[in-house]
Design brief:
The complex is a heterodimer of chains A (about 120) and B (about 280).
Chain A: H1 9-38, H2 48-68, H3 77-82, H4 102-105
Chain B: H1 4-14, H2 19-32, H3 41-56, H4 59-72, H5 77-90, H6 93-106, H7 111-123, H8 127-140, H9 145-157, H10 161-174, H11 179-191, H12 195-208, H13 213-228, H14 240-258, H15 266-278
Helix pairs in contact in B: 1-2, 2-3, 3-4, 3-5, 4-5, 5-6, 5-7, 6-7, 7-8, 8-9, 9-10, 10-11, 11-12, 11-13, 12-13, 13-14, 14-15
Chain lengths: ~120, ~280
Amino acid sequence: MAVQQAPNHFGRLVCLVAFFLFFHSGYSTFEHLSYLKAIDGHESGLPLDITIELLTSVALFGLGIVLVADDFKEILMETEMAKQSIESLDARPSFYSFNHRGRAVFKNVILKDEL
Amino acid sequence: MVNAAKVLQDLRASAERKPDVVVRLGKPLIESGAVLKLDADAWLVYEQVAIAALDIGDDTLAQKCIQALETKFPGSPRVRRLQGMQLEAVGKLAEAGLIYKAILEEDETNVLAAKRQVMLLRAMGLPSEAISALVKYLDINYTDFEGWLQLADLYLEELMYAQAAFCMEEVLMLQPQNHIFHLKYAEILYTQDNIQLALKQFCRVVELCRDHVRGLYGIKMCASRLLKAAPSKDATVTSQEDLEAMDLLATERLIALYGAPGAAAESSKVAATKWIETQ
């Protein structure tokens, strides 16, 4: 039924690395701008290495998110509807009645451990 | 490793009635107090487990959940209807009725209490009162397909097939893409001996859900019934060739499905094929 997928550790690692690169490039930019301010230099755009670091972090983020995300659901309505069982007819949660034998049947039952 | 909260959420979404699963997963969550980590979902889980516990007969667990909800939402009509359900479950139908009446007196439009009252009347063994109450509810809320389904069910219990068919038509107007509703409508029509329309509905089932076995059986049964009856000159009626073609198609698909590799032992497949061909 609905078992959560095993967490993709590699994907999470990639996302983590990307985050650090992103944070680092941001901090480097800040330091660079304060350095420029300190030496009264004119702004000449970001240094190349910070730009490369930033773009790398974006690419790694893209890869990491794709690895970490869950499987897609089907787009065709048909495949989703085919999973509907005939028991869904009797479901009607607001209209439950309790005068059934479930109360007697389950009274002294220890529920099994599998799903 | 199963994530209990996720399974419970999926069960809430699909509205399946699986009280044993819900209690087995929800009981440790609630008793350990881990349920409170779910923030907003925690109260939905409490409600879900309370209802499942009532279904199973675990009254202490139900009481615990309802108590927690009462503490968090004192005087809420939703919690009160849960208390009504609790009384219904132990058999105190009159007291449950009083609770629902009180909720409806405060707020006439309370959908939950109105629905519970219908089911209470049914539990008391008063089907006609239950039907009238539900009809009154559906006069106001005519887009509630769950209500129409329930009304169809109530009519079927009284063997009032024409009215049940009408209810299913209302359901189909609201949810035309669900093949299960078409299937129920088709089977009611077949029971009423309206084979022409039943055949059309069974075809719709198979159209919406490819290779639906029950729908294919329906097509076979309708087609063979119509072929045995005298051929009619009426142009609106399905022609003999079409009926034979449908019969053949249904037979082929059924044999293919039952003969699929791994479906069953060879002897069973042979027996099934022989039986399908004789229908």
